[in-house]
From TrEMBL, chains A, B:
GO terms for molecular function: L-phosphoserine phosphatase activity; magnesium ion binding. It is an enzyme of class 3 (hydrolase). Keywords: Amino-acid biosynthesis, Hydrolase, Magnesium, Metal-binding, Serine biosynthesis. It catalyses: O-phospho-L-serine + H2O = L-serine + phosphate; O-phospho-D-serine + H2O = D-serine + phosphate. This is phosphoserine phosphatase. InterPro entries: HAD-like_SerB, HAD-like_sf, HAD_sf. GO terms for biological process: L-serine biosynthetic process. The keyword Magnesium applies. Pathway: Amino-acid biosynthesis; L-serine biosynthesis; L-serine from 3-phospho-D-glycerate: step 3/3. Its cofactor is Mg(2+).
Length: 344, 344
C-alpha cells in the first residue's frame, strides 16, 4: 500500500467556481468560492439572484425546492442575445432571400422580396403579416429539417452583425452565460422559451448557451413526414404556422413542452409578460426578471417606443409586483465576451 | 496530516449496479458488476441491448456516441405498461363519465355516454371518432391543467385494473424499468413518445418510470390562457385536438419536442413503425426494438388481430430490417414487480 499523503483533490463545479474538495477527510483547505457572476456588478439584481438561488437550494430550508422542480426559463431575443437593429432571424431570412435570388429573377420586382433584396426594412414591415409569411415560406419551408439546420449553421459561420462585425452568435450576453452556468451548477434545468423559431435556435443554443435542443421551446411551422426516392423518411418543413410562442403563447408553450411551472423566468419585453406572470403565480418561491436595455454605448437603449423588443406594460407590472429589473448599464460590468469595436 | 491508508471508496451507480471505485489510486478492487437487467433472460434481445449500449459508450470506440446524443424514446401503452383490455386512459375516461354522471342525468339515455356508463365498449367503439371526441371533451377539457392532473392522480390511487386488481400504474413492466435505469446510468436521456395524452402520462411518468414531465411527448388538446376571478392566470384545457402523436406523428413529435434523432427506439405496435424507421434511418449506430406480447399466462398474447396495440406491418418490417423483437414469454423472466394473482 502506498504511504502517499491521503489528500485527494477533486475538482467540483460548485456555484460556478472550481473548488478544491478534500474527499473522505476533514476539510482542511476549502478555497474561498469565486464569484459565479463576475460580469455582474454588486447591485440589487445580482443580490436578488444569489439570495433566490441560495434559498431554494438550502437543504432543509423553508424555501427549499427539489432539483427536479428547479426549472428556469429564458426568453432568447434581447434576453440571451441581441435583437437590434432587427431580430437576427429576420437578418437570416433576408440573407437567404439574397442567396436564393438568382433562381428567382421575378423577386427584383415583387414585394416583399424586393424590399428584402434592397434591405428596405420599412417596405418589408409595410408588407405586413402576409409579406412576412411569404418571406418565411421562401426561406424556412420546402426543405428537410436537416437541410434547414445546415443552412442556419452556415449562415452563423459567414454572416456578420452590421454594427459589431461579429458572427451573430457572438452577440450573446456574457452575464447571462454566467447566470445560466450558475443555475445549472445549482441543480436548475435551463430552458429557452422564445418567440423565435425553434429550429433556428436549436442550431446554436447548445454551443452558445449550453442548452440542448430538447430544452428549447419556440415558435414553429408544421413539418410532415415524407419518404424520399431512396425510401428514407424525411421531415419536410411546411409554409404554415403551427405555434406562436409569444405573449400568452409562452405559458401555453411551457405547459406543452416542459409540463411544469418554472421557478425562475427571465425576459426583456412585453412578449414575456405572461410568462413572468405565469411563473410568479406559482406557490413556491419564484424569481421573475426583466432585462432593461439602457446602454446605448455598449449595446442599445430602447424600451417603450421600440418596434423590436418593446418593453412597456411589462415594465409597469415589474414595478407593481417587485419583479427584478436588470438595468444593463448599471448592473452589467461587461455585456459581450468580445471587446466592442463597432461604430457607436 | 493523517497517516490513514489512502483508500477512498465512492459509491457510483455504474451500469445500474453499485460499484466500489478506488479514487486516485490504481484500482485494486472493483467488485464484479451485477447484472443491470436481472428480469431479462439471457436471450438474444438482452445481448443486443447490452452490445449496443457498450458499443456507443466505449470511449474512443468506432461506434461511440457522445452523451448529449444518447436519446432513447419509448412508446408507453404496451411498451412500458399494459394496454389490455383497453387503453388505461380510456378506462380513466369511462370512470370519469361515471363520476360525473350525477350532474348529467341525460347521459343515461344518450350515446356515447350511455355506453360508457354501462361499460359497453362495443357500443362505445361504434360511436366512432365523434363519440370518442365527446367523451374526451367531457372528461379531459373545460378544466385547468392543474385540476386535470389532480383528477388523474386521484384516479391512479383509487382505480384498480379489472384483471390484476392493482392500481394501473403498478402494471408497468419491470424489465423495462431496469432497461430505463440501465440506459440512464450509461448517459442516455430517456423519453416517452406515445399516442397517449401527454398531460395524462406526466402525472405518473416521473414516479413510475423516472421520466420527468419535460421528457414526455404525447398527444394533446389545446390549452388557452385565462385570467381567473382573482386575477391569477390559468391554463384551461379545450375540447379540440392539437396533436396526435401516433404513426407518422411520432417522428414529427420527436422533431418538435426533442429536436434530435434518437439512437434507440422501443415500441410494440404499428403505431410505432415510423418512429422506429425514423430512428433507424440515422447515421450513427441505432437500436430499434419491438415488444411482442406473447404471454397470455402472465400478461396477454395479441398482435395482428388486436384492436388495441395492433402489431402487424411493424412486425414484418422488424424481420426485414433486423430490428430487435422482444418475445415477452421467451425473453422476460418477470413481467411486473408484483406477483400476479389475477384470474387468467
Amino acid at each position: 500500500m502506498s504511504s502517499r499523503i491521503p489528500i485527494i483533490h477533486r475538482r467540483a463545479l460548485l456555484s460556478g467556481a472550481a473548488v478544491l474538495v478534500a474527499v473522505g477527510l476533514p476539510r482542511i483547505a476549502i478555497a474561498e468560492q469565486a464569484d459565479p457572476l463576475p460580469s455582474w456588478n454588486d447591485t440589487a439584481p445580482k443580490q436578488a439572484i444569489r439570495t433566490f438561488v441560495e434559498s431554494v437550494t438550502r437543504d432543509g430550508g423553508h424555501d427549499f425546492v427539489p432539483p427536479a422542480q428547479r426549472i428556469a426559463v429564458f426568453d432568447n431575443d434581447g434576453t440571451l442575445w441581441g435583437e437590434q437593429p432587427m431580430y437576427f432571424q429576420l437578418a437570416f431570412a433576408i440573407d437567404r432571400i439574397k442567396a436564393l435570388a438568382a433562381s428567382h429573377p421575378e423577386w427584383k420586382e415583387t414585394q416583399p422580396y424586393k424590399a428584402a433584396l434592397e434591405d428596405d426594412t420599412k417596405a418589408l414591415a409595410a408588407s405586413g403579416n402576409k409579406g412576412i409569411m411569404e418571406i418565411l415560406a421562401a426561406t424556412h419551408a420546402g426543405v428537410t429539417t436537416e437541410a434547414f439546420a445546415d443552412t442556419v449553421a452556415e449562415w452563423l459561420q459567414t454572416a456578420r452583425h452590421p454594427r459589431f462585425q461579429q458572427p451573430y452568435d457572438k452577440l450573446v450576453y456574457r452575464p447571462q452565460l454566467e447566470l445560466l452556468a450558475y443555475l445549472r451548477a445549482n441543480g436548475f434545468k435551463t430552458f429557452i422559451v422564445s418567440g423565435g423559431g425553434v429550429e433556428f435556435m436549436r442550431v446554436f443554443a447548445e454551443r452558445a448557451y449550453g442548452i440542448p435542443p430538447e430544452q428549447v421551446v419556440g415558435s414553429s411551422i408544421f413539418t410532415t413526414l415524407q419518404i424520399d426516392a431512396e425510401g428514407k423518411p424525411q421531415l419536410i418543413k411546411q409554409p404554415k404556422i403551427e405555434f406562436v410562442d409569444d405573449g400568452p403563447g409562452k405559458p401555453v408553450g411551457i405547459n406543452r413542452f416542459i409540463g411544469r411551472r418554472p421557478i425562475l423566468a427571465f425576459g426583456n419585453s412585453d412578449g414575456d409578460q405572461q410568462m413572468l406572470e405565469w411563473t410568479s403565480a406559482g406557490d413556491a418561491p419564484r424569481l421573475a426578471a426583466l432585462l432593461h436595455h439602457t446602454d446605448a454605448e455598449r449595446e442599445w437603449a430602447y424600451d417603450r417606443a421600440s418596434h423590436v423588443g418593446k418593453l412597456d406594460k411589462a415594465l409597469e407590472e415589474a414595478r407593481l409586483r417587485g419583479w427584478t429589473v436588470v438595468d444593463m448599464k448599471r448592473d452589467w460590468k461587461r455585456v459581450f465576451a468580445f471587446e466592442p469595436k463597432g461604430a457607436l
